[in-house]
Amino acid sequence: MIIRPATIEDIPQILALIRELAAYERDPLAVEATEADLLREGFGPSPRFFTLMAEVSGEVAGFALYFFNFSTWKGRSGIHLEDLFVRPQFRGLGIGKKLLCSVAEAALANGCGRLQWDVLDWNQPAIDFYEGLGAKFLNEWRIMRVSDEALASLAAAGGSHE
Amino acid sequence: MIIRPATIEDIPQILALIRELAAYERDPLAVEATEADLLREGFGPSPRFFTLMAEVSGEVAGFALYFFNFSTWKGRSGIHLEDLFVRPQFRGLGIGKKLLCSVAEAALANGCGRLQWDVLDWNQPAIDFYEGLGAKFLNEWRIMRVSDEALASLAAAGGSHE
Questions:
Q1: Which residues of A touch B33 (CB under 8 A)?
Q2: Does the residue B74 lie in any domain?
Q3: Do B30 and A73 meet the contact criterion of CB atoms below 8 Å apart?
Q4: Number of alpha helices (DSSP H) and beta strands (DSSP E) in chain B
Q5: Active-site residue list of B
Q6: Catalytic member of A66, A85, A90, A130
Q7: What are the tens digits of pLDDT across the range A113-155?
Q8: pLDDT in tens, chain B (162 residues)
Q9: Is residue B56 part of a domain?
């Protein structure tokens, strides 16, 4: 098993993995991203995200995709793990753990004191897996979002600033 | 009322606001950040975060601090609003809304289709405020985190990669 940083040549596989993860998360049509989006956002001079690929005998088995966030309490960056996925036929080999450990290594290497991610509340196998590796729920916190039309309305509601 | 991007001169006020927000969130001793941290992470050539200051009659009334994230489904960046705070003596003037609208404008200006943040589940005034502006809970998702010693253990558990 090899864990390695993704290169531009991996983009088609990364997009395929993103789609497979969305299908697993019961939202297979949710992926609007294109290869051009991943190239532009992830492989330019200041990438918005970073990707690790897991390979077994030369085949792509899974991936982890993360970006940096910032904690105003800690005064330093942390890592937000956006996607972690192992293809079904490669499960049970410890690949998910190896990917997560590698992201933790990236966190330490970048001076980050925190690694966090969001988990679906019905995904008990994932929750068990993460808790077994020392992760804890942030119990008091919930996620809110404004998207698309609601976002445009909110921006328009601000009017001029001065 | 003025909403404007923060400059290096605002760093002492930003740190003061971060501490006031932590106190409101019932964790007043949680702030380890220093002025040097904010300078290094937020005001260098590739800043990890961005800050908007709200002023009323020349006095700092509140702030919003955000950074960019990345959605693998959308294939583009979004904004994560890390902190939004209005000092108690300036509440009821619409400053919080104006700050949030300005962050929404920054999202649109940067091609982002999403703006999101985390809210404390007991902070009903904040939840009501956000829902009134079109925000929705991501009901299925929960936040997990590995910090400090647990993060170091996780990184160490990976061993060598190949």
A1: 71-76
A2: yes
A3: yes
A4: 5, 7
A5: 130
A6: A130
A7: 999 999 999 999 999 999 999 999 999 999 999 999 999 999 9
A8: 999 999 999 999 999 999 999 999 888 889 999 999 999 999 998 899 999 999 999 999 999 999 999 999 999 999 999 999 999 999 999 999 999 999 999 999 999 999 999 999 999 999 999 999 999 999 999 999 999 999 999 999 986 543
A9: yes
Contact B151 A104 (CB under 8 A): yes
Residue B25 and residue B120: Cα distance in Å, rounded? 8
In a domain, A153, yes or no: no
Q: What is the DSSP string of A77-116?
A: EEEEEEEEEE-GGGTTSSHHHHHHHHHHHHHHHTT-SEEE
Q: Would residue A130 show up in a list of annotated catalytic residues for this protein?
A: yes
Give the ipTM: 0.91
Across-strand partners of A115?
A: A79, B146
Token output for B114: 């999403």
**Domains held by chain A: number:** 1
| Residues of chain B found within 8 Å of residue A76, distances taken between Cβ atoms | 33, 37, 41
CB contact under 8 A, A75 and B33: yes
Tell me, what CATH number does A98's domain have?
3.40.630.30
CB-based contact A101:B157 (threshold 8 Å) = yes
